[in-house]
Amino acid sequence: MRIFLIGFMGSGKTHWGKQVAHRMQLPFFDLDEVIIAELGKTIPEIFAENGEEYFRMAEKDILEELVEKNSSLILSCGGGTPCFFNNIEFMKKYGIVVWLNTHVEVLLQRLLKEKMQRPLLKDIRDEDLKNYIVRKLNERRMYYEQADVVIDKEDAFTMNDFIQTVLHA
Length: 169
Ligand code: S3P
Prior knowledge:
Blueprint: E1 2-6, H1 13-24, E2 28-30, H2 31-39, H3 43-50, H4 52-69, E3 73-76, H5 87-94, E4 96-100, H6 104-114, H7 126-144, E5 149-151, H8 159-167
Parallel strand pairs: 1-3, 1-4, 2-3, 4-5
Helix pairs in contact: 2-4, 3-4, 6-7
This protein binds shikimate-3-phosphate.
């Protein structure tokens, strides 16, 4: 079984991914971490030195490579992964796509603390961050909504709920 976790930056993909993988005894990967390991650079370095287009190509290639090599996995994607190329169709074809539809206020509180690791956010002033999140989320919603499973109330979900919801997709 392959499970792809998608959602906005700060939606909890890595947090949930690690726990679900542990519970379901599936190999876990964080797509950003695999990109960092393969390219030998941090995400901010890749954006600054090679540009976003290069990052998106690497993201697509490494997504495909991980799927090819792993018939079972839980993959925490980057926030933009489903929104470029045919990545969303690709993931749906090869597994179950789960969207963590975390509330904007929760995203805001998390991202205010973690802005600097994210090249798309680092130059946005704290007071403008909420507007940015709302606008970007609206742009990306059409991709996120294609997920097979939507988790709307992340805070009300237990690990068992999560696993049962995914297994019944
Ligand atoms: C991005 C999200 C990041 C990372 C990159 C771009 C995005 O991943 O892939 O900074 O376009 O939303 P997280 O969602 O894990 O922060």
